[in-house]
Amino acid sequence: xxxxxxxxxxxxxxxxxxxxxxxxxxxxxxxxxxxxxxxxxxxxxxxxxxxxxxxxxxxxxxxxxxxxxxxxxxxxxxxxxxxxxxxxxxxxxxxxxxxxxxxxxxxxxxxxxxxxxxxxxxxxxxxxxxxxxxxxxxxxxxxxxxxxxxxxxxxxxxxxxxxxxxxxxxxxxxxxxxxxxxxxxxxxxxxxxxxxxxxxxxxxxxxxxxxxxxxxxxxxxxxxxxxxxxxxxxxxxxxxxxxxxxxxxxxxxxxxxxxx
Length: 260
Description:
Elements: H1 4-18, E1 21-22, H2 23-30, H3 34-46, E2 51-53, E3 56-58, H4 69-73, H5 77-87, E4 96-99, H6 103-114, E5 120-124, H7 127-133, E6 139-143, E7 147-149, E8 154-156, H8 158-163, E9 169-175, E10 178-180, E11 184-187, H9 190-201, E12 203-209, E13 221-224, E14 231-235, H10 240-248, E15 252-256
Helix pairs in contact: 1-3, 2-3, 5-6, 6-7
């Protein structure tokens, strides 16, 4: 039988490899009771080495706070650019799409501006995107109105939600703050989650743009279950087990290679 130190090393090695562990799985693999593993995880949490959630553990606190979009812009910029370059390949020359808000979405909008289009319709709540694409030839832009959320520079609320009643689009592209197998797709505010759900209703295909750090994270507002997503575009930092979990849920996974 393994010692306490050996069990703790086993748990931490699993966390480093897979990003999360389930108490039941660890107990079965080590041939000990779930009570024993719960005690081990509690001790490791007290040392700040992991974060315990119901029935499992993760390397860090999965709950995320609402951040200013300008702060997000400076994080993993090269990764977001790689994701944007793969995501823009999903847009047809004469498509009608909804583009939400966020730093990865803004990188996607920059790629949209660089490409030639026949006649691309874009509906967006994102004020920065409206300014960026306003002078682009052959892009017809519909800017949603509503209450401005200062941190995201996006509009929210009933006005934006109701405006989508008049839209029928082929695809919606949106960023998220968390992708979790138990809690699904989440963002940092309930209002943004509500608007995103309405954007999904107005589009035939639902496409998430999220760098690999978003997996295992949880925002305050729940958008939908993982199974309601058609495509996730991410980077090659995604763990193999996470990628398998995404594909098992019936979601197409597109992995962008980061630039050397």
